[in-house]
């Protein structure tokens, strides 16, 4: 018999209080303040809602973001009033756009969820040839940067756009009346409509001029190209058409002349039909290009100039005297002879910042009739002029500039002699800076104008001649920002917005393609003919280059790191924590020095007891400018007599304290020359680096990097160069993969996912690392935690050096070991890299083993295997024993030592209401005390299957993607279903170059690697 007892929660409920009744019947205790968000209700009821208007109506700011948890505080969430028909909750939308920030450029697809951009993808449509690098993948985080400039400021005080317009117009009128000079100082725009708009501005203001300033200059190469072809542009090389590549100081797999060459390069580096391209690299710093080269020769820039003249002599048949030492001359002559023999299949590139040197490059490629050298689609992404910028600084200090309007530049930070610029700026009556942040320049001008992020902007771009791209907003402006172009239209007295102007003028550039078509595709290919070049006085240029000499004991070679580039992304924690591909150091810039020079100077690196890397400090002096306490990295492969130092660090303004790291190397960038004569002395103290190279390494664990030479690959069977590990079974040697401890189940039904990684195609660029961060909500832990081996990267790119000059030399030395004592001493010595080592990159993530060691030791079954080959993690089940991490031979699991989300100890984007808007809602944010790792982007594979199911069709080959495979522009990573025997990944898995990591362990991974093949 049931009880009829009556229970109550409070005295008020027992007494039937009216307030209890009200609470029972009202879902929301407080009235939702919809007026604050929705504005005029009458106007709203008659309006339509587009995807961009969504944020306007719901006031999508930190107040509207629901991040509530069961035990957390209640956050108000405002629902749609009129749900946009284009937006389906839970389903991602993609919009084509193109980005160019003055340094980086790419054709993109932007993934949005419920009106929020959350991920950058590559646009793969025909004609979209430029893929996103690591910085562009990370740039989406800049949209949600709480340090952005939110309101226009006049004389340091918050103001309005009407006041800004009035002040600029007044200043322009005053300048015209007084005959003062008006200067527009911008980065390279590459925008036909903006350049037309600037032309109209100058027509209305004859006292105005436009100066283009690139923080990292390519002016010498531009001057040379302009002198020969009559256009201020750069050659767009196609390395897929070259069988022989000779690079003299050009890191074309890095940021040289904008980068973006890795896809074409990788095509020729994968051995097909017994052939692959050959690559010679002559350079000072160890670079991505040098790491990929078949033959890398470290030499000073002075020696590189002599090498360039020697190549010119051999290819052209000239006899200009050169001064090259014996071994250098032998290698240069060998490369030059092969280049001449290659003819049209050869190409020469050079990063030497010297007009005469660049004229020689043009001349040599013309003589070769190089197919990889084309002027038909010249690059328009660098237009800066060193001479024009230097003249501007003189004019500023002379007091002849009345009004200075700047956009996309930060000269107070990036100019070597910024003090002269600042002193000249004080003499300007009106100075305006359009900027995302109140940076070093915007903080001292009379008008600081907040510019929108590119994901909030309209624009057009001509990245290369014969192409036209559109930039479209994917979200309404989060702050009170306005585009530089809109202000120019206003001061020109032109009616309408920049969108109206852009659309009205686009017909002149699209060659008949409709506006909607270009907007949908993101890019239109119009085609163009090759430029006819003029005569080159190559003999005079060669003689001038041959007379170049090193000015001092050390050459400092300034460069940009793969992570921070020119420094405009310094407040981006993803990029700060991104390990440099070569040094594997994050959160720092440093001077790199050769081992021989380090010994002379008393500079050292040391791995200490906790696994962290420590290094000496040095003081560097360039022509009176001094950088003190510069951390030192002893870099294998650094040319003796040279030093390397990265630009882009040392910023302070508008940055969170955690991001204010490194030193400003622009102070040494004298005369826009990336090579400086320097003196260096050791300073006191020890610097603590956040270096991941000594952590989670697979060194000494068997055949990690398998490689062979092209000759052996072509002449011997795969059993010789891709040897299968053997074990003893019943006293018989059998392949290790045939012996199992577990019974396998049938995986032929349904999908079975594999990831193929080609070591020949991987350049170590790191785009996959940042894409994984963005897709999977990977936390940033900061320098101190990285130093403690607690980085959270789900995907790492291991970098290996040979201890001899080649990895083959390492093998020969290892095979020559005799006895235990010899073994110990030899292996200890082999842990040290050679002076000019070969380099190999290897991306490593969870291998998703079919016989996974982690699964057998988990006491709570938090990690288990799925039928589709993925190793799953049930975060709610995990109790953090870390048994799985200890039992993983690949060291790919990460443990959440702390709660990184909403934790003031980790003040990055996850501790920021605005920053958390970038989080992917399909992937939960992990809490403290659980293990996490690569999931093979299961949310992406599930979404692909659901899409195909809704469309009533099977999944097509190439549709299945992971974040890393879709970000990989070189084609090194291919993902797919191996049960589809016609799929690309199935054929790659069956290829004779394929092997598994630590195959002898018997884990049977679903990630397969391909033997690296080198030219000899």
Question: How would you describe this structure to a colleague?
Answer:
Helices cover about 30% and strands about 20% of the residues. It folds into five domains: about 10-65, no CATH class; about 155-215 and about 400-510, Rossmann fold, CATH 3.40.50.740; about 220-380, Dimethylsulfoxide Reductase, domain 2 (3-Layer(aba) Sandwich), CATH 3.40.228; about 550-690, Beta Barrel (Barwin-like endoglucanases), CATH 2.40.40; about 705-1015, Alpha-Beta Plaits, CATH 3.30.70. The termini are far apart. It has 36 helices and 39 strands. It has a seven-stranded mixed β-sheet with strand order 5-4-14-13-12-6-7, with helices on both faces. It is an alpha/beta fold and about 1000 residues long. Residues about 55-80 have low confidence and may be disordered.
SSE layout and pairing:
Layout: H1 11-14, H2 18-25, H3 34-38, H4 41-45, H5 53-58, E1 93-100, E2 105-113, E3 116-122, H6 134-138, H7 140-143, E4 153-154, E5 157-158, H8 161-178, E6 181-186, H9 192-204, E7 208-212, H10 219-229, E8 244-248, H11 262-269, E9 278-283, H12 288-292, E10 295-298, H13 301-316, H14 326-342, E11 346-350, H15 355-368, H16 386-398, E12 401-407, H17 411-414, H18 418-425, E13 430-435, E14 447-450, E15 459-461, E16 467-471, H19 484-492, H20 498-505, H21 507-510, H22 515-521, E17 523-525, H23 538-546, E18 554-560, H24 573-577, E19 585-586, E20 591-593, H25 595-601, E21 605-607, E22 613-622, E23 625-634, E24 642-647, E25 675-691, E26 707-709, H26 710-715, H27 718-721, E27 726-729, E28 732-735, E29 753-758, H28 767-776, H29 783-787, E30 796-801, H30 807-815, H31 820-830, E31 839-844, H32 853-857, E32 863-865, E33 871-873, H33 883-887, E34 894-895, E35 931-932, H34 938-950, H35 963-967, E36 973-977, H36 984-989, E37 994-995, E38 1007-1010, E39 1012-1014
Parallel strand pairs: 6-7, 6-12, 8-9, 8-11, 9-10, 12-13, 13-14, 18-24, 20-23, 26-39, 29-38
Antiparallel strand pairs: 1-2, 2-3, 4-5, 4-14, 15-16, 16-17, 18-25, 19-25, 20-24, 21-22, 22-23, 22-25, 27-28, 29-36, 30-31, 32-33, 34-35, 37-38
């Amino acid at each position: 018999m049931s009880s009829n007892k009556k229970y109550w929660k409070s005295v008020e409920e027992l007494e039937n209080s009216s307030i209890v009744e009200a609470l029972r019947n009202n879902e929301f205790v407080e009235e939702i303040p919809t007026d604050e968000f929705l504005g005029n209700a009458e106007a709203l009821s008659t309006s339509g809602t587009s995807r961009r208007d969504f944020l306007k109506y719901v006031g999508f700011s930190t107040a509207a973001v629901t991040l509530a948890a069961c035990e957390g505080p209640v956050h108000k969430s405002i629902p749609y009033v009129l749900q946009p028909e284009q937006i389906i909750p839970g389903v991602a939308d993609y919009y084509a756009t193109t980005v160019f920030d003055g340094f980086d450029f790419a054709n993109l697809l932007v993934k949005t969820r419920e009106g929020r951009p959350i991920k950058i993808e590559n646009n793969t449509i025909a004609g979209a040839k430029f893929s996103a690098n690591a910085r562009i993948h990370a740039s989406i985080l800049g949209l949600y940067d709480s340090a952005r400039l939110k309101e226009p400021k006049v004389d340091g005080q918050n103001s309005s756009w009407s006041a800004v317009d009035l002040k600029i117009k007044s200043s322009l009128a005053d300048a015209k009346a007084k005959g003062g000079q008006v200067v527009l100082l911008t980065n390279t725009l590459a925008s036909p409509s903006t350049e037309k708009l600037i032309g109209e501005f100058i027509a209305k203001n004859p006292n105005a001029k436009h100066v283009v300033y690139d923080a990292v200059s390519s002016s010498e190469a531009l001057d040379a190209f302009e002198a020969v072809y009559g256009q201020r542009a750069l050659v767009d090389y196609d390395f897929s058409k070259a069988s022989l590549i000779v690079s003299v100081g050009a890191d074309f797999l890095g940021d040289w002349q904008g980068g973006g060459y890795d896809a074409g390069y990788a095509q020729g580096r994968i051995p097909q039909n017994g052939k692959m391209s050959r690559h010679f690299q002559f350079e000072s710093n160890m670079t991505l290009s040098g790491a990929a080269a078949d033959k890398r020769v470290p030499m000073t820039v002075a020696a590189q100039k002599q090498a360039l003249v020697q190549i010119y002599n051999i290819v052209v048949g000239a006899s200009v005297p050169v001064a090259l030492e014996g071994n250098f001359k032998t290698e240069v002559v060998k490369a030059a002879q092969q280049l001449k023999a290659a003819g049209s299949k050869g190409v020469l590139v050079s990063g030497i910042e010297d007009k005469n040197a660049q004229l020689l490059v043009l001349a040599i490629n013309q003589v070769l009739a190089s197919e990889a050298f084309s002027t038909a689609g010249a690059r328009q992404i660098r237009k800066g002029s060193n001479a024009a910028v230097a003249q501007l600084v003189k004019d500023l200090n002379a007091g002849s500039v009345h009004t200075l309007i700047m956009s996309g530049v930060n000269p107070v930070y990036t100019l070597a002699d910024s003090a002269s610029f600042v002193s000249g700026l004080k003499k300007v009556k009106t100075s305006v800076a359009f900027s995302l942040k109140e940076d070093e320049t915007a903080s001292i001008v009379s008008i600081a104008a907040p510019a929108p992020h590119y994901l909030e902007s309209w624009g057009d771009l001509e990245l290369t001649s014969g192409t036209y791209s559109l930039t479209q907003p994917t979200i309404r402006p989060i702050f009170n920002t306005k585009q530089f172009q809109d202000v120019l239209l206003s001061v020109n007295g032109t009616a309408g917005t920049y969108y109206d102007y852009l659309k009205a003028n686009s017909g002149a550039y699209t060659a008949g393609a409709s506006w909607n078509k270009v907007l949908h595709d993101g890019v239109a290919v119009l085609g163009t003919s090759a430029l006819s070049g003029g005569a080159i006085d190559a003999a005079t240029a060669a003689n001038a280059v041959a007379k170049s000499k090193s000015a001092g004991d050390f050459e400092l070679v300034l460069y940009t790191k793969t992570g921070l580039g020119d420094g405009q992304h310094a407040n981006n924690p993803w990029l700060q924590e991104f390990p440099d591909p070569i040094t594997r150091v994050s959160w720092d810039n440093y001077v790199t020095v050769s081992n021989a020079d380090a010994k002379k100077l008393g500079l050292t690196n040391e791995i200490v007891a906790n696994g962290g890397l420590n290094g000496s400090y040095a003081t560097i002096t360039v022509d009176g400018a001094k950088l003190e306490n510069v951390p030192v990295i002893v870099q294998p492969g650094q040319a003796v007599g040279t030093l390397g130092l990265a630009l882009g660090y040392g910023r302070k303004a508008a940055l969170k304290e955690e991001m204010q790291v490194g030193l400003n190397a622009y102070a040494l960038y004298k005369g826009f020359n990336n090579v400086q004569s320097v003196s260096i002395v050791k300073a006191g103290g020890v610097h603590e680096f956040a270096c991941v190279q000594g952590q989670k390494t697979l060194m000494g664990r068997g055949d990690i990097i398998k490689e062979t030479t092209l000759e052996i690959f072509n002449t011997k069977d795969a059993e010789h160069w891709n040897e299968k590990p053997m074990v003893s079974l019943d006293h018989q040697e059998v392949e290790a993969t045939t012996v199992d401890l577990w019974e396998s189940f049938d995986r032929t039904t349904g999908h079975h996912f594999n990831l193929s990684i080609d070591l020949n195609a991987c350049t170590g660029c790191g785009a996959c690392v940042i894409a994984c961060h963005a897709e999977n909500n990977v936390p940033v832990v900061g320098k101190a935690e990285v130093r403690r081996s607690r980085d959270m990267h789900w995907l790492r790119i291991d970098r290996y050096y040979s201890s001899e000059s080649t990895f083959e030399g390492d093998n020969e030395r290892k095979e020559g070991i005799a006895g235990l004592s010899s073994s110990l001493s030899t292996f200890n010595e082999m842990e040290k890299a050679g002076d000019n080592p070969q380099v190999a990159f290897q991306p490593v993530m969870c291998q998703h083993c079919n016989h996974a060691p982690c699964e057998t030791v988990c006491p709570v079954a938090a990690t288990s295997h799925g039928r589709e080959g993925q190793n799953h993690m049930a975060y709610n089940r995990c109790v953090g024993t870390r048994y799985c991490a200890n039992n993983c031979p690949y060291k790919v699991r990460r443990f959440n030592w702390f709660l990184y989300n909403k934790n003031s100890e980790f003040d990055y984007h996850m501790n920021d209401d605005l920053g958390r808007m970038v989080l992917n809602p399909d992937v939960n944010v992990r809490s403290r005390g659980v293990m996490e790792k690569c999931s093979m982007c299961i949310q992406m594979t599930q979404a692909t299957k659901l899409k195909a199911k809704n469309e009533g069709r099977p999944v097509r080959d190439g549709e299945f993607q992971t974040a890393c495979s879709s970000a990989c522009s070189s084609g090194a990573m291919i993902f797919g279903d191996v049960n589809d025997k016609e799929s690309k990944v199935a054929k790659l898995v069956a290829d004779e170059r394929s092997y598994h990591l630590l195959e002898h362990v018997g884990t049977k991974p679903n990630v397969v690697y391909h033997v690296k093949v080198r030219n000899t």
